[in-house]
Amino acid sequence: MDDFAGGEQVVESLLKELAETWHRTIPVSAFMQISPLEYSDKWLTIGAPLPPNINLHQTMFAGSIYTLATLTGWGMLWLQQRIAGVDGDIVLADGHIRYLAPITEAPLARCCWPDTELGRLSMGRRVKVSLEVELWCEDKLCATFEGLYVSQPIA
C-alpha cells in the first residue's frame, strides 16, 4: 500500500505527469526514453531502454547513466512535493557518481525518500535534500549516485 492518501490511481497519474514534465522540459529525457515505472513505500523506480543510450562497447553510455540517476533523484523530489502539496523549482546543486559495472541491459534506477520535511517551501524558504540513487542491471548494482537537490519556492 502506498504511504499517502490517494492510492494507486493517483500514483499512476503522478508518474504520467512526471514523465510528461521531463519530456517537455528536459528534451534529452524523451530521447533517452526515461520513464517512471513505480512508486511504492517511498521508493521510486525509473527505467530506460538500452538502445538509445548505448556506447561503442554496447553498454550504457556513462552520460546516460549520470542523466538517468540525476533525473531519478529530481523526480523523487518532484513527486514528494506533489504528495505534500507544495511547489518548488528543483535543481541539482551537487552530484557524485560511482560506476561499478557495465550496464548491458535496460537498467532500473531506484531512490528512497529520506523523510525530509518540505513544509519550508510553503513558508517561502528553500529546501535541501540529499538523495541516493542506485542503478541496477540484471540484479547487479552497476552505479551509485549521491545528489544534493535544492528546491526554491516559486514566487
Percent in strands: 25-35%
Pattern of helices and strands: HHEEHEEEE
**Which stretches are low in confidence, meaning pLDDT under 50 for 5 or more residues running?**
none
Shape: globular
Helicity, in percent?
25-40%
Q: Pairing-aware structural class of the strands and helices?
A: alpha+beta
Textual characterization of the structure:
With 155 residues, the protein is of the alpha+beta class. Helix content is 30%, strand content 34%. Strands 1-2-4-5-6-3 form a six-stranded antiparallel β-sheet. Helix 1 (7-25) crosses helix 3. It is globular and about 50 Å long. The termini are far apart. 30% of the residues are buried.
Q: How do you describe this structure in short?
A:
The protein has 155 residues and is an alpha+beta fold.
Ordered list of secondary-structure elements with their pairings:
Elements: H1 7-25, H2 27-31, E1 35-40, E2 43-47, H3 62-84, E3 88-99, E4 108-112, E5 127-137, E6 140-153
Antiparallel strand pairs: 1-2, 2-4, 3-6, 4-5, 5-6
